[in-house]
Amino acid sequence: MDIRPTHTIYANNLNEKIKKEGKSLYAIFSQFGQILDIVALKTLKMRGQAFVIFKEISSATNALRSMQGFPFYDKPMVLNLLAYSKKDSDVISKLKGTYQERTKEKKKKKKEVKKKSVRGGFSQIPKFYGKIQIKFDGVCPLTIEMPTLYNPYQINLGSCFMPNIRLKQMLKFERFSRFSQCGQGRTDDDGSKNPPNHILFLNNLPPETQEEMLNMLFNRFSGFKEVRLVPGRHDIAFVEFDSDQQASDAKGALQGFKISPTHAMKVTFAKK
């Protein structure tokens, strides 16, 4: 059976009150690589859910590992490695030139499939038990051992973190220190000669920048206090932390972060 990872992350437990969640999802996930599409429907069944499709598989894997449980508008996101399938999504197929339009007959047969839901997926999908190991490619490869897995097509990383408390704590640490440890992140050299400061200065922000968006990016770092926008200026802002070191950690991690496809954020220490 040809089962392979694909490019899509499935996110749920999203705050249903957010109107433009697509832009906010782009803001927090684009740091991991090029995003081809974000599907966030507002239908009754799809509220609080979204699909984020990356151009590269490694980008999806890294984003999944780093953003699991991220407080998206005060609700922790639940991310699934749902993207295990024999076929690419339409947008990826079009990119590869392998897209084939589905005929009405195929669509009709698909609807006729009996969908008996069981834990982990449809009853037609084979299940296996025991312990497995998942090795992440890309940033800081890590092997996680899980007990029972019910469905090889769907791996909920939220459940992976729970059996081992020590592992969970280690992941929390690596989630934001990976940039310096693995050499895969953005450079901390911003060309500024300002001495370390507990207040960061942000510039090159896009016109649509909002305080909530910046809060989501920075409040995951220890010591975060507040974001301050400058009245009449959309392109700059200040972020305050408890200490110089905490500000430095956030600065190193988010230096060059793309708030939008055309705006890479510049982060420096504010002048004292």
Report on this structure:
- It is a single chain.
- With 272 residues, this protein is α+β, with helices and mostly antiparallel strands.
- The chain folds into two domains: 1-98 and 117-183, Alpha-Beta Plaits (2-Layer Sandwich); 199-269, RRM (RNA recognition motif) domain (Alpha-Beta Plaits).
- 29% of the residues lie in helices and 26% in strands.
- It has eight helices and 19 strands.
- It has helices at 21-29, 57-67, 90-96, 104-112, 157-161, 165-182, 211-218, 244-254, and strands spanning 4-5, 8-12, 35-39, 50-54, 71-72, 75-76, 78-81, 84-85, 117-118, 121-122, 132-135, 143-146, 155-156, 199-203, 224-230, 233-241, 258-260, 263-264, 266-269.
- The strands form seven sheets. Strands 3-4-2-7-13 form a five-stranded antiparallel beta sheet. A four-stranded antiparallel beta sheet has the order 15-16-14-19, covered by helices on one side. Strands 1-8 form a two-stranded antiparallel sheet.
- Strand 15 and strand 16 (233-241) form a beta hairpin.
- Helix 6 (165-182) packs across helix 8.
- The longest helix has 18 residues, at 165-182.
- The model is unreliable at 83-87 and 113-188 (pLDDT under 50).
- One of its GO terms (cellular component) is spliceosomal snRNP complex.
- Belongs to the RRM U1 A/B'' family.
- This is RRM domain-containing protein.
- It is found in: Nucleus.
- InterPro entries: Nucleotide-bd_a/b_plait_sf (IPR012677), RBD_domain_sf (IPR035979), RRM_dom (IPR000504).
